[in-house]
Design a protein that fits this description.
By secondary structure, this protein is α/β, with parallel strands linked by helices. It is built from 14 helices and 17 strands. The chain folds into two domains: 166 residues, Phosphoglycerate kinase, N-terminal domain (Rossmann fold, 3-Layer(aba) Sandwich), CATH 3.40.50.1260; 188 residues, 3-Layer(aba) Sandwich (Rossmann fold), CATH 3.40.50. β12 and β13 form a beta hairpin. The radius of gyration is 23 Å and the shape is elongated.
């Protein structure tokens, strides 16, 4: 894979695919981590006198314009990080943009690429159109690289293609998880359904030493008549890693934030599918802390309780406190877990926080990501 860090790219026209699909509320950005992650690549390209068209998507506009999913507020915020360098928003097609005009400005930002229905169809026509003004394509959008889209995959057929700084960092960090230099490797996997995480757990169980199960999917491991129990049994039977089920959990008869709940031992959970496991209880952390303290590498993907509800956020917050103070290398596996870390302002305590949701999950499942494969 050709990387920006190993190349000398000067005075070129760059088509830069990034992932600025940030969480928004009422037109305001709730988490800027995806924006800050690509700034080193952009600053490097500007320093070397390159001209840049930045490309990203935001949300799911389904191939048509949606003013609520415009990249304009993101362009303005990015401009502030770049010391107020002007970023001009442009639209497809590029009919009104001449090559001379492009040469006169450092940065443009293409409006939300998913406003064009051809993007998700990996249209060759669109891929060719996107390459119109560029000499080089750079992918710095790890979080979008599991998609075989025109701006992440198809465009590589038309331009020399490189990995940006952040994409390279993501791949190196995730590859490091399976390094032989670690002697005891622990994965903490939360979530609601085992069927959603079975490929992840199966792949990790071949390469790590311990896997701690959290979230609602604990039910599948302890309730024999649970719809996902067969998946859970398959994991336990085939796993080379030790599967750890928390001893004590919070359960409620209703799945809502105000339900009455109690603490019970997981071995005492009857095959009552009306019982909802909502969090890991404090008593479970006596043993969990032992596994954390004895591990030298830990990856965490998925909250261990219904974190959005105050009554059932304590297990996840307790886990954060333990991971903050461990000497192990700690990796956050993207998605909702990364958002929790940013919302609690604890990012500085972790070795690496992936920006990828689905991309990180598929990488850890052992799948080949089309956007990465296209750079090889």
């Amino acid at each position: 894979m050709k990387t920006l860090s190993e190349s000398e790219i000067y005075n070129k026209n760059i088509f830069l695919r990034v992932d600025l699909n940030v969480p928004m509320m009422n037109g305001k950005i709730r988490d800027e981590s995806k924006i800050t992650s690509v700034i080193p690549t952009i600053k490097y390209l500007i320093k070397n006198n390159n001209r840049i068209i930045i490309c990203s998507h935001l949300g799911r506009p389904k191939g048509s314009y949606d003013k609520n999913l415009s990249l304009e507020p993101i362009a303005k915020r990015l401009s502030k990080f770049l010391e107020n360098i002007e970023i001009k928003i442009i639209n497809l097609p590029f009919d009104n943009l001449s090559r001379d005009e492009f040469q006169s400005s450092n940065i443009y930002m293409l409006e939300n690429i998913r406003f064009d229905s051809r993007e998700e169809l990996n249209s060759e026509t669109l891929s060719n159109e996107l390459s119109k003004f560029a000499d080089i394509y750079i992918n710095d959008a790890f979080a979008s690289s599991h998609r075989k889209h025109a701006s992440t995959y198809g465009i590589t057929k038309f331009l020399p293609s490189y990995a940006g700084f952040f994409l390279e960092k993501e791949i190196n960090s995730l590859n490091e998880l399976f390094s032989k230099k670690f002697s005891k490797k622990l994965a903490i996997v939360g979530g609601a359904k085992v069927s959603d995480k079975i490929q992840l757990i199966n792949n990790l169980s071949k390469k790590l030493d311990f896997i701690l199960i959290g979230g609602g999917m604990i039910s599948a491991f302890v309730q024999k008549n649970h719809p996902d129990h067969a998946f859970a049994e398959e994991i336990v039977i085939n796993s080379k890693a030790k599967i750890i089920i928390p001893e004590y959990v919070l359960v409620g008869n209703e799945f809502n934030e105000n339900t009455k709940y109690k603490i019970i031992n997981t071995v005492d959970i009857e095959d009552n599918l009306n019982i909802n496991i909502l969090d890991i209880a404090e008593k479970s952390f006596e043993k969990i802390s032992d596994y954390i303290s004895s591990s030298d590498m830990i990856i965490w993907n998925g909250p261990v309780g219904v974190f959005e509800w105050a009554n059932f956020s304590h297990g996840t917050l307790r886990l954060i406190e333990l991971l903050k103070n461990t000497k192990a290398k700690t990796f956050i596996g993207g998605g909702s877990t990364a958002e929790i870390i940013h919302n609690t302002s604890t990012g500085k305590f972790f070795t690496h926080i992936s920006t990828g949701g689905g991309a990180t999950l598929e990488f850890l499942e052992g799948k080949e990501l089309p956007g990465i494969k296209a750079l090889l």
